[in-house]
Please model this.
Amino acid sequence: MDPDQQPFIKIQSLSKHFGSFTAVDSVDLEIYKGELFSLLGASGCGKTTLLRMLAGFETPSSGTIHIDGVDMTDVPPYERPVNMMFQSYALFPHMSVEQNVAYGLHRDGIDKQAIKTRVEDMLAMVELTDFRKRKPHQLSGGQKQRVALARSLVKQPKVLLLDEPLAALDKRLRENTQFELMKIQDQLGVTFIVVTHDQEEAMTLSTRIAMMDAGRFIQIGTPIEIYEFPESRLVANFIGNTNMFEGRVTENGVDHIVVQSKQPACEFFIDHGISIQEGTRVWVAIRPEKFRISKSAPESGQTNQMKGVIDDIGYLGKLSIYRVRIGDDKIIQITSPNLSRPKHGESLLDWSDEIYLSWDASSVVVLTK
Model:
């Protein structure tokens, strides 16, 4: 991202109170033109309320919203350069596909020929030209989603707000539609803001993600930054799976630190230093895919390895999930790609196998909160 680029959407000290309840708590946010930006968090964290304030459906209790350099805080929804696509799609059941897409343009008094051209172009973009005369009840879930998207985009908004846009689709269709959405967004260059509680959806779609909790942002970054460099246990646990170990810093070097945990007894060597005092209580996070799993002990020293017993196995075809018991009561999760094909009727690892785990010094994240 160009460091000199000016934010297209600028939110400053924005809050929303419903009586004594604070839904959005004095947040600041900058979103750039052409981004596909996601607001991610559990139900009730404030992400939909923030989206509705951007759309103009909710009035902020305090703070400001600027879009393309213009203060939109008190501008009514119908005068904002924004359109919103709802989770329910809200298609008119008595109208055909092309009538649904053209509806907003007719309401705006656009010339009939211009409407015809824009609707045809939009239907072609979402690959629904052959379905133009069908009614919503004659469409699949994915087709309805694309009609709703076309209707939102045909008015050429500067910003498109999407509230859980793929929640009604099944897993396979949702995955396919994510890439279609990215392709359309890239073609049009419209700024998309997506609200979702689905971490995989946010990771797939987004140029950047804002993680929300209790009305505040707890981390903003690219999908790689959020996943590989979480800033708190809350983020690490929400995005993907992670294994957490509590310990204390026993050595703090310029380019490394060492953390000793008791349950299980293990020494973690981390080859990236952080500003922290020896003796500080920390949590070490390791993603399931960062582990190496073997029946034989690693040749390296005593750091960055531990011993365990396989408690359970989940076979998913391309990878296997292992739940490994460490010590008396700690269960951690490991994922391992199935790179080799076992002989018929046998598995490479089995329940109750005693195994060794090891990991690279760069794979560990140290969290202080």
